[in-house]
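dumping this here before i forget
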Amino acid sequence: MAFEITNPSAGTTGNRRTVTGTWTGAIGDAAGSYDIGSPNVISADFDPNLGTGTPEKPLVSRSVSGNITTLSIYNKQTVTDGKFRVEFI
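structure:
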């Protein structure tokens, strides 16, 4: 199962914009990526949402090119129903 974002939903809180949704990924896969249309990402939280075991949040790195921030998600566990939230301006 490769990294995949599903059900993304955009919203706003004051002057901040958000994207929330679900994600999946398998241990040992290459890093997944997700692009945000802003160079100003405030936070990016990818929660594995595991019901058992010790959940480990994946490392998330950022790179910016022009007005696009690419998030790279380095998953440490197999995730079938992860939740994510990205906040940006």
